[in-house]
């Protein structure tokens, strides 16, 4: 596995930032000493210090001392954060060498450029990662801004692909894909919990039911990826005529599972677009 020498900064140290930072450290892509993270309340960054990262309350310090900076704040905080780091960017002579990676849901590259208009050659990569990055099974999509070089993109791609699957996509697709990949883990956790509840109802101990349900989804997902077969084909292979599975699938259809998941993706896409307009 390739390693990076660059210092990686995080403006905002919440769950997504920690999933990325801790994942990179755990995979050996970077050392803890290469990580610098900022947050408004230093006491909330204790988990970062536990893994050996440096913490600060100053967003400007992250920009000054880092080479690749992940923006991991809420979309409505964008303008405030940009104003906070403006003086640090203006003061540094290395502006053109710094690469910013945005994980702000719904915020476009054009909107980011407006907020960072004090940077004449803003190198911004818009991404949408997901929390399974912390266990090396993330799914991230990204789109680079106009000033991002191929060399810059190779570094970002290395960081993101080291934590799962990462792929460059047209920016216009990010909100829709993110409604599947970014929000999808929450949908899947709900399915795992529901399957486990069903097992508990039938007398299976809770922890055992959760473990079996989670492993079942993991195995099914790997089967889709490794065989390349359509999910419907794989489902039909499990459904024996008159068997238990087809009876269960019938109940899922009657309960509207498919319709509910499609609607969830649609609503999440719409919300992502709304968040972008509010930033």
From TrEMBL:
Pathway: Amino-acid biosynthesis; L-proline biosynthesis; L-proline from L-glutamate 5-semialdehyde: step 1/1. InterPro entries: 6-PGluconate_DH-like_C_sf, NAD(P)-bd_dom_sf, P5C_Rdtase_cat_N, P5CR-like_CS, P5CR_dimer, Pyrroline-COOH_reductase. Its EC number is 1.5.1.2. NADP(+) binds at residues 11-16. It catalyses: L-proline + NAD(+) = (S)-1-pyrroline-5-carboxylate + NADH + 2 H(+); L-proline + NADP(+) = (S)-1-pyrroline-5-carboxylate + NADPH + 2 H(+). GO terms for biological process: L-proline biosynthetic process. It is found in: Cytoplasm. The keyword NADP applies. Residues 171-275 form the Pyrroline-5-carboxylate reductase dimerisation domain. GO terms for molecular function: pyrroline-5-carboxylate reductase activity. Keywords: Amino-acid biosynthesis, Cytoplasm, NADP, Oxidoreductase, Proline biosynthesis. It is an enzyme of class 1 (oxidoreductase). Residues 7-106 form the Pyrroline-5-carboxylate reductase catalytic N-terminal domain. NADPH binds at residue 59. This is Pyrroline-5-carboxylate reductase. It comes from Pseudolycoriella hygida.
């Amino acid at each position: 596995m390739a390693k990076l020498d660059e210092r990686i900064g995080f403006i905002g140290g919440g769950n997504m930032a920690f999933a990325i930072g801790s994942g990179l450290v755990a995979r050996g892509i970077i050392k803890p000493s290469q990580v610098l993270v900022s947050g408004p309340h230093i006491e909330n960054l204790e988990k970062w210090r536990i893994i050996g990262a440096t913490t600060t309350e100053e967003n400007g310090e992250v920009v000054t001392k880092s080479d690749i900076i992940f923006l991991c704040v809420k979309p409505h905080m964008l303008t405030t954060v940009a104003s906070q780091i403006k003086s640090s960017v203006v003061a540094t002579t290395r502006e053109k060498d710094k690469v910013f990676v945005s994980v702000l849901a719904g915020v476009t590259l054009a909107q980011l450029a407006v907020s960072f208009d004090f940077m004449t050659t803003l190198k911004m990569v818009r991404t949408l990662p997901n929390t399974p990055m912390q266990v090396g099974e993330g799914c991230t999509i990204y789109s680079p801004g106009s000033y991002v070089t191929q060399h810059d993109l190779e570094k970002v791609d290395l960081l993101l692909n080291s934590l799962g699957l990462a792929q460059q996509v047209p920016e216009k697709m990010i909100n829709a894909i993110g409604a599947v990949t970014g929000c999808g883990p929450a949908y899947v956790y709900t399915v795992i919990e529901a399957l486990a509840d069903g097992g508990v109802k039938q007398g299976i101990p809770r922890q055992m039911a959760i473990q079996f349900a989670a492993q079942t989804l993991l195995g099914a997902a790997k089967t889709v990826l490794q065989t390349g077969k359509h999910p419907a084909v794989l489902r039909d292979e499990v459904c024996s005529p008159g068997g238990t599975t087809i009876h269960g699938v019938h109940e899922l259809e009657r309960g509207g599972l498919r319709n509910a998941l499609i609607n969830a993706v649609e609503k999440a896409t719409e919300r992502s677009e709304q968040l972008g307009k509010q930033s």
